[in-house]
Amino acid sequence: MSAVVKPEPNTPRGAARPSPAALNAAAASFAALTARLDYLNAEDTELVRRAYRFADEAHLGQLRNSGEPYITHPIAVAAQCAEWKLDAQALMAALLHDAIEDCGVTKPELIERFGAPVAELVDGLTKLDKLQFNTREENQAESFRKMLLAMARDVRVILIKLADRTHNMRTLDDAPREKWGRIAGETLEIYAPIAHRLGLNQTYRELQELSFRHLRPWRYAILAKAVAKARSRRRDLIHKVQRELETAFAAAGITVRIAGREKTLFSIYRKMDEKHLSFAQVTDIYGFRLIVPSVIACYTSLGILHQMYKPLPGKFKDHIAIAKLNGYQSLHTTLVGPSGVNVEFQLRTEAMHVVAESGVAAHWLYKASDNNAASRERLGAKWLQSLLDIQDETRDAAEFWDHVKVDLFPDAVYVFTPKSQIMALPRGATVVDFAYAIHSNIGDHTSAARINGDQVPLRTELKNGDVVEVITAPVSTPNPAWLGFVRTGRARSKIRHYLKTLAHAESEGLGEKLLAQALRAEGRSKLPPDDAENQLIWEKLLRFTANRSRSELLTDIGLGRRIASIVAKRLMFLLAERGEKPDALLLTRERFTAHETVSQGGVTLDGSENSSVRFALCCRPIPGDPIVGYLGHGEGLVVHTNDCGVGQRLRHRDSERFFAVEWAEDPVRTFETGVVVTVRNDKGVLARVAATLADAEADITHVEMADESPQDSTDLRFVIAVRDRTHLDAVLRAARRTPSVLAAARVVPAPYSADPTTPGSG
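Below the sequence we write its predicted structure tokens.
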């Protein structure tokens, strides 16, 4: 424990300045915190004192980079939490937040001494230590995920962490200079946006400013001098505006508290950098914040201001009627003040001011006297809940971080549902983001949308004031292409989760078909059921394949990670051990038909297989083509035409991975294939050919022209979607009848040759 501060024996009585040791002892004593705890009762204060004593003993002998006792850091963190009026448990956790990491204290010991809630807070904070952002290593992404999930369960975790980071940034000058860039960059990229997302604007601005000072010290110093000069030049202007405001509001009988507001150096720097402005061109460095008694007074005051000074068009924002995502509320207006200088004004009530500065912490700060405390308790709740939703869909830590990162910057657009409910979404959000924000079932079954009554594509970006109506259909499912334009982490994680689940189910179904087909070749008509009678057989087979479950084994077969024929032979061996023999008739029939294109039990393709089956781009098979299936390594089933050189080369090298496949009688979609159309270089020939293909009901998905010098003729290469070979033949006949077309044919792959010098063999 820290000693009580006493005068040192050699220090003369009445010395003008205490010694460094005395100052350190004072900063390390509980007295440094006591004055801030007046809002706690005596019992809670004693609990905090107990936590202080424990932390002081645990950190005894440890020093910070500045030479101060280490306990001064936990005291400073607890003091910041006390500024937010957090409860005793949070203050105790703030004092103990480094105890597990740095002092060897265990979580069970904390539970025994201080209770489970305090221990959980400390544990949640401990997992955050030694994070290094801007890297993609799995352990760092995992640490970040744990931080956010701890925060989602209890927002006090992130409040304590932000207090911890703020004090570390205030004392960063004492750290080795080579660490400044990493710590300040991490703060600017992660912790400042989290503070902003949760409405902690005062902390947000301070973290930005401190990060800027340590990342760009020279630019910070130059800007600080420029702002100081501008401040002295405009002091008279500011005083004049303040006097005029006081007079006008007194005449109107409105009580007002006027505070000057100066743009932070970082926000000035960022505006200059993003908009390529000089310092002289940044006109909104100074502003005024007017705090009035009620919401009605805010709008009345706005009228007074607009009578005094001329408003700038397009510079009025009503964040009271439509609050920001983090709960911020104020009226903003920019006016042309004396001498033609633009001045920004913010109008808000006292309650709005507390929320504007402290965000989620305002729940503790202001709940005693504010009737609207319940709404403030929900500040940030939607975002925190979305973290848990994303976690449910995303088990990969790096992917989780990707999803969350896009939601850290809440520059929002405000749109309406058809029932006039306001929805706030990040700028750039699309119709699909809107659908998932309402409910995941609506997002999953979105088929079309209307904005302001007009039909629009699903990738349409939303604008402020749009009325959005989502049209759903039971048969609609998430499209992989949606991942290319959705903006919110929630939508992205829901789509990926659906596609992964679908791919898993499809691969499992394919694997079951392949294993059943391989078993037929071994003389058994079907798989043994997954029941109590066959449980031992399946357990032995899973030990052989090193899979955890039957489902995982079948999925691995479907993805090509296991060879169906090898698994089938092992399964038949296990069944033979139990006394079961292969069906001789079935074995004979399978061997007799093995030479045919498709033996019984082959896989039938109708185009509905999605991600479990891919159609090779080298030969682009379509219904009617003789085809064969290749089970790639981890990529599922790849379908080639029988005469495809690439497929034949793979079969020559890896024959056990090939098996019979066939087309269904009625495929459910169109299939892509390549055609080359040779044309004379006449004006408008591309448009004529494209129109002919469209008239023949062939969808053009890609087109390119030969990159050659101008000649009499050229090749147009198309990728078109057709129903089958009959449809393709009709399309090619129509193309050949088009004026200026010399020839039209399907693109065929190069033949296979065992001679490595022959084209198509390598």
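Residues 489-521 form the longest helix (33 residues).
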